[in-house]
Every structure is written in C-alpha cells, then in structure tokens.
Amino acid sequence: MWNWIVAILSDPNTRWILLGCLLLGFSSGIIGSFTFLRRQSLMGDTLAHAALPGICIAFMLTETKSVGLFLFGALVAGIVATFGISWITRYSRIKQDAAMGIVLTVFFGIGVVMLTRIQHGASGSQSGLDKYLFGQAASMVMTDVYVMGGVCLVLLIACLAWFKEFKLVSFDPGFARGMGLPVGMLEQLILLLTVIAVVAGIQAVGVVLVAALLVTPAAAARCWTDSLSLMVLLAGVFGALSGATGTIFSTLVPNLPTGPVTVLAATVLFAGSALLAPRRGLLARRLRSLQAKSAYLREEHATLQTLSAQRAQQERGEL
Amino acid sequence: MSDAILFEKSQLQPNANHLKGTQPTSAPLSVRDLAVAYHKKPVLSGVSFDIPEGQLIGILGPNGAGKSTLIKAVLGLVPKMHGEVKIFGQSYREQRRRIGYVPQRESVDWDFPTHALDVVMMGRYGHLGWFRRPGKKERDLAAHCLEQVGMGDYMYRQISQLSGGQQQRVFLARALVQDAELYFMDEPFAGVDATTEKAIISLLEQLKKQGKTVLVVHHDLATVEEYFDHVLLLNGRLVAGGPTNEVFVPDTLQETYGGRIAMIGSRSEKGQV
Fold first, then answer.
1. Is the minimum CB–CB distance between B59 and chain A shorter than 8 Å?
2. What tens digit of pLDDT does each residue of B140-157 get?
3. What is the dihedral of CA B189, B193, B194, B198, to 10 degrees?
4. One CATH from 3.40.50.300, 3.90.1170.40, 3.30.1490.20, 3.40.50.620 for B27-272
5. Is residue A171 part of a domain?
6. How far is B33 from chain A (nearest CA, A)?
7. Which CATH number covers residue A221?
8. How far is A106 from chain B (nearest CA, A)?
C-alpha cells in the first residue's frame, strides 16, 4: 500500500489536490475552533446543507460549473439561512437548535430536489454536481485547487488578524460589547468565515459531511490543551491530517468519495484524543480518580491503625 | 509596583477633563426616562436618576426588577426602548474607555481554554485597538491587578480549576485593568464565601478612595447600609434613589419588595433596639 501512496504522490495533479485539501483541513480546523467554543457547531452543518440550493441555483442560472459562482451562490444561501434562523427564534417561541434543524432540512430538501432536476436536464449529467453531496477531491481541476488555496489563505489571515477579538467574543461577548467592540459584526464575520470554509470544502468533502471538518478537529484539539492558541493550531493540524487522509484513500479506491474517509480519519483522531489526552482524556481521568481513591483508603487505614494502637496502649495502661 | 504608577493616567484624566470642562455638573451617570422591554414585555420604564461621583452605589430590588437590565441598557448590551443615558455628560460611545464592567459570573463558559492572567488581559483589549497584540506591558498590568485581588498565586491556573470566589476575583481584576472611572458590577457577591466578599468590599472601598464611582447590583439587604453610600431601589421602575440613610427605610423597602420585606425590616429594627 505504501508503494501505492508513493505512486499517487508522484502524480503532480494529485500532489496539488492533496496540498489543497491539507490547506482546507487546516483552515477549517482553525475557524471551527471558534464556532466550537461559541457552541455553534451545528451552525456549520446548517450552513453547509443550506449551501446546496445556492450552488444549484447558480448552476441553473449560468449553466456553467465555476467554483467562484458556486461560492457566491452558497454564500447567498448561507446568509438567507442565518436570517431564517434568527427570524424563527425572534418571532416564535422556537429555540435556536430547533430553528437550525428546520432550516437545515428545508434547505437541504430543496437542494436535493434541484439537484435531481439538474441531473435529469440536458447539461446535467456532465455537471458533476452529484459529487457535491459527498465530495470527490479527485474530480477537482487546477483552477479549483487555486481557488480553494486562495480562500484558505484568506481564512488563515483573517483568523490571525482578529485573533484577540475572536477570542474575546467567543469567551465573553457581553464584556466585549461593553468594551465597545462591534460584537454583532465580529459574530457575523465568524459566520461568514465559516461559510467560506464550508464552501471551499464542499467540492472536496461534500455538503453532507463538511461540517465534520469544522467540529471534530476542534473537539479533538480541546482535549490536549488549555491554551486557545495551541488549541487552534492543533485543530488546524488535525484538520489537515484528516483532509489528507481522505484525499489519499479516495484516490486509491475507485468510487470512494472523499468526505466519508475524511470524517472517519477525523473521528479516529478525536477518539484517540478523548481517550488518551493527558489531563482531559478518559483514561487519565479514570486513573486520577483511582489514585485519589487509593490514597484515601491508605490514609483511612493508617488512622485506623493508630487508633487501634492507641486503644491497645490505653488498655495496657488500665491493666 | 504601586497603585500610583499603575493608575497615573487615570489621575491625569479628570484634570484634563476639568480644563476642558464647560459642563461642570456632568455626573458620572445620568439616566433620563429610560424604558427597556424584552420581547415587547416591559422590564423597566420611566427610570431617571443621576449618580454622584466617587461613591459606592447599590442597585437593589426583587428578582426580575430589572437590576441587571438597567446596567445592560446603560452599557448598550440590550436595546433601549426609550430614554437617554449620559456618561460624564456624553454618550456611552464617546466615554466607553472610562467604563469598567464586571458581568455576572454565570454569563460565561468557564471551561474556555485560557488561564486567569489571559482573562485579565482581555480588559486591556479596548485600549489596544485593532490588530495590536497584548505584550509585556499588558501582562504586567494584568499581573498587578491579579495580585491586588489576592490571586497572584493563580495567574497561570486554567480558569475551570478556580473556585467560584476566585473566578469572581478574576473578573474583578479584569475590570481593574480597564483602569476606568465608572464601574458596573453585576452581582459580584453572588455565590462567594465570606473571605472573598470581604476582599471584594475592601477593593471597592479602595476604588472609592481613588475617586471612582462603582455601581453594584446587590441582593443581601443585611449588608446594604454597611457597604453603600447611595442606593437605587428598583421594581420595574425606580422606586427611590438617594443616600442610603435617607432612602433605605422601611417605607420604600416595602414599596420595592412588597409584603416580603416586612420580616426583614422588623428584624433589623429589633437589632437596632
């Protein structure tokens, strides 16, 4: 199998795609850390599913498959979706999680109906839009990789430039607003960057599973560290690893979509982290509680012994 | 490092303002006819008051009286339905650097990946402005403020590993590092032990000595007379506001809290006899 991987890497086209997916995983992990800490993990999923009708409409209107246009369509759909969610939560008693569930499914339903229409249409069969459901990194062409790389760079620069603002808005938005930061705008910016990450990842990972690249690496990284900058970096590395694994395996195995493999790789990383991480890991915690218990028992044993020794002494004294 | 060094800038600021001063009577906080509503349900209405400078002010009232809402409306965290808020005679936007804020402790997720010193440094972000990272100066200021609240030994402690009282002190240190002149504190005494409460109140006294004005949302009626110079009694509206010895009397308390206060009132009277 190692030979296979080497053989694949020797193909320059695959190398570029692999690099693109690495970059995608890295930047998704980074922006995902902030959505994860803001407890908006489901938001990424909603935005990804909502992107599908946007992409379909962009294709139906122009009859061309251009990543830039799809990005625009997905962006508009994502914005409409976020407005839909805030509209539902504001004007009904429905909470945000339910509102997200409603918007996610409605948009995805519409998207699938449109996709089916496109597939049966004249230019549809060669559109390759069906690949957008679960992703096919190998189907990307050079320009796609360029666009994806550029978008990821923009994401990275934005997260670096506004790191301290994003941190404060994620930790304590009330305090941030009291300080005079434009919290609403920063929150929208984080959402916008999330949409961009989602759209950049759609072709490689697919709308259904792209959210996993936002959530799972961040959750895995959180296990290892209590520092935000380290967590963000680790999430990026985990995301990049997952993206690369997904790309390599889907290139190796014919007809294997990239998305599921990427998600599985991320999940393995997460399971390992949740189990083995030194302080927050399951094993470490179990070990600590066992240690505490045995220390307590030892102490109790010692006090019992001194007590009985004292009593014996007393009895001897009485005799 | 002494307080004088740390706060030299703020000591200069009032003077500079005074020289500019065409409005000598600009109170630290002046609220006119404020009304706030959540989901069309009015929480506060017709609230007007002025706050004297350099005093500790308690905001009192039963649950749901709008105490936190008042602070949030002044800080612009919730939209005002009606009314006007002036801080040192100007809008909040122009004066926000002179404001420090301690939110309710439960308002944040304490499992956030950061340590105490880092949280305190967040208080300097407003002074730093965009695209500038906190450096050594911010770190020193934050460390000094943590020491002031007795948390010098916990600087690099992960915030979820701190007790409730320690978390509250971290929030106080973050407000201190803001180096403000007008402070808003939302229930700083909630769920802290007696030691922390004493530490907080001595800190408030210190702030007062430096000429700062502090508004505190407070629950424990037994300590009001001991802690505060001035009180605002709220119950959906401003029932009474003024010096504690004038306003904190059975009649207004009865009006603020309804029947529930009768017992506490009579007990404190017995105590005085």
1. no
2. 888 998 988 888 888 899
3. -50
4. 3.40.50.300
5. yes
6. 21
7. 1.10.3470.10
8. 27
